[in-house]
Design brief:
The protein has about 350 residues and is mostly helical. It has one domain. Helices cover about 75% and strands about 0% of the residues. It contains 17 helices and no strands. Helix 4 runs antiparallel to helix 7 and helix 8 packs antiparallel against helix 9. Belongs to the complex I subunit 2 family. It comes from Tarsiger rufilatus. It is a multi-pass membrane protein.
Length: about 350
Amino acid sequence: MDPQAKLIFTASLILGTTITVSSNHWIMAWAGLEINTLAILPLISKSHHPRAIEAATKYFLVQATASTLILFSSMTNAWQTGQWDIAQLTSPTSCLILTTAIAMKLGLAPFHFWFPEVLQGTSLITGLLLSTAMKFPPITLLFMTSQSLNPTLLAVLAILSTALGGWMGLNQTQTRKILAFSSISHLGWMAIITIYSPKLALLNFYLYALVTSAVFLILNSINTLKLTTLMTSWTKTPALSAALMLTLLSLAGLPPLTGFLPKWLIIQELTKQEMAPAATIIALLSLLSLFFYLRLAYCATITLPPHTTNHMKQWHTNKPTNISIAILAVLSTILLPISPMILTIV
């Protein structure tokens, strides 16, 4: 892709996100979401592969439908209350439509089917954008309207997302699809706590974006798209493979790594809100995700593949390791001891 075109699309992504995050009017928020959608489409389809074109088409159709529902929800609310302010969402019908629209935009179950297919059709860097930056504007809308939404509906969507994200990721062999179902599972944790503690949900999103960025960048550096390729990565990049194992375990939420912090705090907050059964269910369902994280970590650190592979082995890498990968990998593992300072800042 031409560097000038890439610069324009990247600037449009930043502009669309900024407009949505900083707006109080529904029309401005909708316009920012549309700018984001139109800017990411060329980045998804830049390889000109039929799978990439299919992914871009699916992404456009889903995002356009969700944006239409957001506009319809805001118009219904304005018609009944005379308010276009995002914080003044009081109509029950509008709240229901908005919850559905944001669930479609984020990929929450049962509106999650498009996300693994789109992520599978893109490169790892574009997949990183779809998993982190493109989810920030819809999550911001969810935070701004959290006091108006139905807590029971959000809890059901969250538990369903955690269950399906873990269950459907068990039999995957493509790393991009595994990370897609990982994203769906983590969105469930964010959705269930949004109404009770929006700041905690935001902290969860920040830490998820940090850890998953490290995973995506490491996989991109060692050029790994399948588990069979991952099994031979230890021979050419042992340091990156060890870092990948630690970041995957952090993504799974194992103590004493960084990813344990948001899960710990969310379970604590749900217990305070007298939602101990929901906290127990969502904690048990996260064990499904833990299984495929452990499988990925095992494949990343294995010294010899257990069966014959059909691709050429590379015994060294010609690409120097990016310093940003090292910084992200370190932050993905050691932030738990300084968690009181993080909570003070948030």
